[in-house]
């Protein structure tokens, strides 16, 4: 086994995924509490994402730290670019997020946020608010507010590097091909129950490792850990941020997709975990219509494209 075998496997995985349909939940452990707000840890996001909330509210937390998500995504091709190709995420996407948002220990509401981009138009719908539930809609002809795909199961997959600014949105297979950056490490290590080999990615001048990816030998070299390192020499090198895959779902012959995972930041006491709640669905031929929806009745809509406001009857 060598780095060429890893390149071949990763390139095949990148090219084999055309579209994806995911349902999953995320959780912050331990969840934030209202005591955290005293230290300004929790801040309410600006409207209209959470509908109508009183102006004097200084704290808004997610109940039990749990959010539930549905995601469609399509178009994972990289763009030609010199000196290496670029991957900027799926060309079309839809994300639905549900969470119970709390103003106090006993006051809150079930919030729904739907965002989508169908390749030409961006739409957003927010349903929620306190004390009155409101429906806010927004339309634009630009892809204005892409979800943080790095925090979704996609961010634990072969597409991780291309979604990350630190690697200039370069696909994993393209980085692996650059001998001056990628160093194969053949020692087999057990990572979360996976037998793995790894590749270290090096700084161009110091040659110190800045990242390390571990690949599962028993799962066609699927990535199962992404370590972002402090850039020190090998003996002092440590991970500042780790994306760990905890389980894999087999979705096709020789193709696995993350089923659960955790994000660990060395500067944080909390971790972010995700778990897929339904079988991962790939390459079902998602059409543009899958990334479109109609605003429900009584939605207040601002159409930026046409510069007008209206209420859906």
Properties at a glance:
single chain, 313 residues, mainly beta, 17-stranded mixed beta sheet, 3 helices
Number of separate helices:
3
**Beta fraction of the residues?**
35-45%
Question: What is the CA-based Rg, rounded?
Answer: 21 Å
Write down the secondary-structure element order: HEHEEEEEEHEEEEEEEEEE
Query: Number of folding domains?
Result: 1
Percentage of residues assigned to helices: under 10%
Structural class: mainly beta
Write the topology of this structure.
Layout: H1 3-16, E1 19-29, H2 34-38, E2 61-62, E3 66-74, E4 92-102, E5 108-117, E6 122-128, E7 134-140, H3 172-176, E8 182-191, E9 194-202, E10 209-216, E11 222-229, E12 239-252, E13 255-265, E14 271-276, E15 281-282, E16 300-303, E17 308-311
Parallel strand pairs: 7-16
Antiparallel strand pairs: 1-3, 1-14, 1-15, 2-4, 3-4, 4-5, 5-6, 6-7, 8-9, 9-10, 10-11, 11-12, 12-13, 13-14, 16-17
Explain how this protein is built.
The chain has 313 residues and is mainly beta. A hairpin with a 2-residue loop joins β12 (239-252) and β13. The protein has one domain. It contains 3 helices and 17 strands. It has a 17-stranded mixed sheet that branches.
Summarize the structure.
By secondary structure, the protein is mainly β. Helix content is 8%, strand content 42%.
């Amino acid at each position: 086994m060598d780095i060429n075998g890893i390149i071949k496997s990763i390139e095949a995985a990148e090219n084999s995924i055309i579209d994806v349909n995911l349902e999953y939940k995320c959780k912050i452990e331990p969840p934030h509490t209202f005591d955290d707000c005293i230290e300004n840890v929790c801040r309410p996001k600006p409207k209209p994402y959470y509908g109508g909330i009183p102006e004097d509210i200084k704290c808004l937390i997610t109940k039990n730290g749990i959010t539930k998500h549905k995601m469609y995504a399509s178009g994972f091709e990289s763009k030609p670019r010199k000196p290496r190709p670029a991957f900027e995420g799926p060309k079309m996407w839809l994300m639905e997020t549900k969470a119970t948002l709390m103003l106090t220990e006993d006051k809150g509401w079930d919030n729904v946020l739907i965002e989508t981009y169908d390749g030409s138009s961006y739409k957003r719908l927010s349903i929620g608010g306190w004390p009155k539930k409101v429906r806010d809609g927004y339309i634009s002809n630009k892809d204005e507010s892409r979800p943080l795909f790095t925090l979704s199961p996609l961010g634990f997959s072969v597409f991780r590097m291309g979604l990350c600014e630190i690697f200039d949105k370069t696909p994993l297979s393209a980085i692996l091909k650059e001998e001056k950056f990628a160093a194969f490490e053949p020692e087999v290590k057990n990572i979360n129950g996976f037998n793995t080999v790894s590749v270290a990615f090096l700084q161009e001048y110091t040659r110190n490792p800045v990242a390390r990816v571990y690949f599962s030998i028993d799962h066609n070299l699927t990535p199962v850990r992404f370590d972002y390192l402090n850039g020190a020499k090998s003996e002092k090198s440590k991970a500042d941020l780790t994306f760990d895959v905890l389980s894999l779902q087999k979705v096709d012959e020789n193709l696995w997709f993350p089923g659960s995972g955790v994000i660990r930041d060395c500067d944080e006491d909390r971790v972010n975990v995700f778990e897929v709640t339904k079988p991962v669905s790939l390459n079902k031929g998602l059409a543009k219509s899958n990334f479109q929806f109609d605003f429900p009745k009584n939605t207040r809509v601002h159409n930026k494209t046409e510069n007008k406001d209206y209420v859906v009857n």
